[in-house]
């Protein structure tokens, strides 16, 4: 790994544990949130019972906890996409939490194992922009899914000054990307810099193959990319710290 700071692109509310783990490993970081979370004041929960609640991110869990009437659902089975969202669900008051393997495919399979279409509807709390067709795919399996759009993830319009300086100076160790959308935003903001300042020597640490594909499409197949062994924060930290030893 090139000496220098790692650029952490997670939203401010999600980056803390990742940055703390990297700092503990002796790795320098720069916060560069490419998405900011804005909760929707008009979001409302349907006045009905659900057999389970589906959460695709920690932000979904935080958004649910802010909604009027959320307390009545705290005992409802909550299926979270991964460890971080599961922890956020528990912190928000959910008492029955099951975690999936870190992506939408795993969430769908976990929901199918724990729920049945005949047992009642599912509640899906999400942001305005989603990927993976969660609602559609569960509907195809016979489930009734009610989606509540509870927040928006708003894209940054410019890279932070410290990030520009690190990239221009060719001294950033790499960029950490958790989603295809974040990768797209990064590529767009990086293109605002002069070609000579765009840090083409950067290593990209990607949570999944889908994220890596965005980088390859933007910068070519020879881009320096490290993909986590599974789509979890633990695997991402392991991938980065292992690279730091080489």
Chain-wise SSE layout:
Elements (H helix, E strand, L loop, with lengths): L5 E3 L7 H9 L4 E3 L3 E5 L12 E4 L2 H9 L10 E4 L2 H9 L5 E3 L4 H11 L7 E6 L6 H7 L4 E11 L5 H8 L5 E4 L2 H11 L12 E4 L2 H11 L4 E4 L5 H12 L2
Parallel strand pairs: 1-2, 1-9, 4-5, 4-7, 5-6, 7-8, 9-10, 10-11
Antiparallel strand pairs: 3-8
Helix pairs in contact: 2-3, 7-8
Strand content: 15-25%
Q: Kindly, what is the distance between the CA atoms of the first and last residues, rounded to a whole number of angstroms? A: 6 Å
Extended strand count = 11
**pLDDT < 50 stretches:** none
Second CATH tier, the architecture of the largest domain: 3-Layer(aba) Sandwich
Helix and strand element order: EHEEEHEHEHEHEHEHEHEH
- Count of domains: 2
Q: What would CATH call the class of the largest domain?
A: Alpha Beta
Helix and strand composition category: alpha/beta
Number of helices: 9
Spatial shape: elongated
